[in-house]
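Page 47, continued from p. 46.
Same chain as before, 531 aa.
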Amino acid sequence: MLQFEIDQVTDSTSWRALRLFSGYRLFLAAMLFFVFYLKLPPEFLGESAPVLYSVFSQFYLLTAVVLMVFTSKHWGLFQSQTKIQLVLDILVITMLIHASGGLKTGLGSLLLVVVVAGGALIPGRISVFIAAVATLSVLLEAGYSQIAGDGVTKYSQAGLLGATFFATALLAQSLAKKMQKSQILAEQRAQDVTKLAALNERIISRMQTGLLVIDFEGKVTRCNKSARSLLAISKPGKPYQLKHYVPQLAEQIWAWKHHNATTFVPFQARADLPEVLARASELDGGEILIYIDNTSAMAQQVQQLKLASLGRLTASIAHEVRNPLGAISHAGELLAEAYADDVKITKLTDIIQRHSAKVNGIIETILDMSRRNTVEPTVVVLAPWLEKFINEFCEIKHIPIGAIELIATAPLAKAYMDAEQLHQVMCNLMENAWHYSDKNATTQLIQVILASNENEISIDISDNGEGITEAVQQHLFEPFHSQRTGGTGLGLYLARVLCQANGARLNYLPDEKERCCFRINVPLDWQESVQ
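Result:
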């Protein structure tokens, strides 16, 4: 395979060299033709046989044009075409030398270029053959001049020129071999660099860690696919200011450049995007390389540890809290029965019973949510799973058919999650949506939308209620914070914990109609790594 690539490089280089020599031939033929017809110096061109010179100069110019076309199109075999062209050059130039007065004109040096071209283009015995043909041609010219002229011997000049031809051919052959090896090595190195650059580009584009390169003006010059996905950056055709797309990251980089101690902290570029953490390093050219890490994997491990700890904690709570709580509740009931006619005592016992029930509800909620303290993921085909879940939910809550609409734009979407924990998350979100929905409205009460793109799967649960105020949104996923009468404030908190334990994200965002909407995002790259 390597030898085949070397042969291809050699072939391409040889044709390029032959094309260059064809350009030189065309220039030489044009000069010899126009200098003669325009009667420009030197005047000895065609002096001995003007008609013969005219015929061969025209023939040489026409042949140069034709050979230029042949060489440019790579027609024929390289060595065969090169040999024919060089022999033709020697014959035509010899005739032009003869028509101009012989070797005394100095035109024999034109044959030296042909010999050098032979040594460079076809190294080996063929180059020596070209030198021999050139030497023979000048010897014949010298012999003819002696016979047809004054009889003075001119073989010494022809012999010296022939020896020069052979020496030049050998030297050109040696230099051509070295140049060819250097060219092959350079081509190979260029191909290796190109392949390495393509490999690096492919690796960088498929990395789960986002990469940004920022110049000294704060413009993003390079950005891989993961960074665009994690930071919701579109793909402009030219460098762009980072602060216009991700101002949080731009502020952190500015702080890092000014040696702020609290430089990089986790943030979300958008409400429905994962939490990320940036790292920076300065390159030699003054540019800044930014690494964008998705903290979801770390958060998943933390949440699984939390679930395991929560399971052990609830076992202790069940033993240490529920028994005394049961005694308190029972004592309150007995006290209420004993003083049923006393209004003050009844009011106090009602407070005891109500708050005992609330504490017991908190314990039951924690027990239910943490009963499975390890994640057991399975493949869940989401569209049929959601349809079955909605039917069961409507039946349990006595919700009219059609009050909850399922829109599955990705009917074949699959998630690798713990089905029981997903069921618990959906139960909590659907109960909240049903509680806060406007039952008297004519619009759809609840919508469940299943969608997917190239990066992740999303499940939206939205209701037609009034939505959530900004003040409430700040504490939405905090434990024991609830606006719902009788609520424990643990539902959304534990729903997010379970989503993180399964590699998913749960966020609140208003939908297109400004309604309350909770979105579960399941990244596809995390799904592939788990499977």
